[in-house]
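Hi F.,

I've been meaning to write this up properly since the lab meeting, where we talked about keeping a consistent format for the predictions we share between groups. The idea is simple: the sequence comes first, exactly as it goes in, then the structure tokens exactly as they come out, then a line or two of notes. No screenshots and no reformatting. I'm using this chain as the first example so we have something concrete to point to.
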Amino acid sequence: MEIDLTPAALLALRKILDAAELENRKMAAATGLTSSQALVLRQIGGHETITPSAVASALGFGQATITNIVDRLVAAQLVTRTRGLADKRQVMLQVTELGREKLKASPFPLQMRFSQGYAGLASWEQAMILAALERLDGLLTPEAPAPARQSGA
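Output, unedited:
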């Protein structure tokens, strides 16, 4: 007789989602930023200057997402955009003093706590967790709709 582990799995998933939601509320209360904005601000703040594409690559975000987040950070005067000295087509991002103050006031993001804990695991544990997370992503991500059929011919 097999034991149904579905309720335990759903409970664990709910705990993860609740932790993420609590983190988002803490971040918003402390800084007025979303967790994504805080991650981008922290990534930019870790460099003297950095390109938006380097931020997108480091965080695994799309270029359009980074552009949207950076627009909001610039509007809040937390980040500046400047043209590259060598190549005027290149845009460079830099954290302002106000942005640095926000970083100091922000709680340690959940993603960073996970990264530190994950890095401390044995490689076989990392592989098991990664496989489980990828499988979970596959279970939760809806299938792409079938392409529309061409009429005629």
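Notes:
Helices lie at 6-31, 35-45, 52-59, 63-75, 97-105, 110-119, 123-140.
Residues 108-140 form one domain.

If this format works for you, I'll send the rest the same way.

G.
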